[in-house]
Amino acid sequence: MSERTGLTHVASFVLRESGSDAPLPEIAAAWLADAVPPPAVEEAVPALAEALTALAADGLLTVRRFRTWPAAWVDGASVAGERLTVETRVAGTWLPGPARDGLLVARVTEAGRAYLGRA
Questions:
Q1: Which residue from 5, 25, 16, 11 is spatially nearest to 105, judged by alpha carbons?
Q2: What's the pLDDT at 2?
């Protein structure tokens, strides 16, 4: 995908990475591995958080919180709107390891899959 499709480079990356239920730490790890030189997680979080919340607001992906992972999608609690914005701005949300309030996992919606198919 490119700017002509309406998504930033970061948003395109997050949408593609979320194609099969992606925990936020996995998205961050893939983003950091793709960058040369790799930034610190704290440097990457603002761009990743902005992309994720914009994609969710546009209905291209959805985010749920899980106490354990992997788990059935229906077992997660939806995280959206202002709550998603606040939580994704915290670097710890994107780091691997035990999450205090549960792991956030992104999933591409039907609209997101259609968007990916057109791009």
A1: 25
A2: 36
Spacing of C-alpha 37 from chain mean position: 21
Determine the Cα–Cα distance for residues 101 and 3; give it in Å rounded to an integer: 35
Neighbours of 27 (CB within 10 A): 23
What is the Cα gyration radius of the chain?
A: 13
Kindly tell me the sign of the dihedral angle through the C-alpha atoms of 87, 11, 74, 71.
negative
Single-letter amino acid code for the residue at 30: A
DSSP string, 46-76: HHHHHHHHHHHHTTSEEEEEESSSS--GGGS
- Angle, nearest 10°, between helix axes 110-118 and 9-17? 120
Contact between 7 and 50 under an 8 Å Cβ cutoff? The reply is no
The pTM of this model reads 0.90
